[in-house]
Amino acid sequence: MIKEEDLITLWIDTKRTYLVKVRKGKKVGSDKGALSLDDIIGLEYGVEVTLSTGNKAYILRPTLIDIYNGLRRPSQVLYPKDIAYMIYSSGIKPGDTVLEAGTGSGFLTISLAHYLGDNGKVITYDIRQDMQEIAKKNVEFLGFSNRVVFKLKDVREGFDETSVDAIFLDMPDPWNVVKFAYQALKPSGSIVIFVPTVNQIEKTGIALKNNGFIDIHAEELILREYQIKENAVRPKNIGVMHTGYIIRGRKSLKSSV
Ligand SMILES: C[S@@+](CC[C@H](N)C(=O)[O-])C[C@H]1O[C@@H](n2cnc3c(N)ncnc32)[C@H](O)[C@@H]1O
User: What is the pTM of this model?
Assistant: First the structure.
């Protein structure tokens, strides 16, 4: 049942999808008509509603993709396909503690916070306060403030934490952080790095090999959306052609026997 302060997706059509927090006395407007949020309190998610113009719309429970499309993103942010694989391949689980740099607009941060749950922690570093302010607003909007710690620090000087479960890097020169990541990680813990160019893969991969990481992989994910139209099903004309590469490895320990 929808309550005040809940997040909803107002789905009018594929081009008009709005992420909204339910507040009494507020309206959501669009060129297809407006919806008074008072009218949806107490309804079930999935319900069809009528806009002020008579057009129909639906109230959906937001997915992470809806959240991704609905939040502010002044910096280049990671794409859902990359975020999903970074989380999947890292081996983290709800309740874990992870480090992240840089925070940027906080899109990876919120995805990690969503996945780790109320007992988990994302400790996220950035050198830019203005970026972290935006990320903080996004984290607060989603109600994840208790799961995220923001730190204003250059991670090329090291992390403050030790024994963390995984480390995620999306910054220009991750190879300068690899030795500090090794110190901060639990043995067997994953480092997962995103870089936009092939040149960065080489430097990062070599740094991982030289600093005690094993099980190193560099991968690219390609996602194509298809239009669903009778007799004209084919890839959509417009789409994201390139995002970047994911490099990952695991912390090894020297033999103790
Ligand atoms: C591309 S953005 C990260 C986007 C983020 N992953 C997201 O999905 O919203 C890169 C961020 O790294 C930060 N950064 C760059 N060098 C850094 C460093 N040495 N230590 C900490 N943060 C750094 C930048 O200020 C910037 O905000």
Answer: 0.94
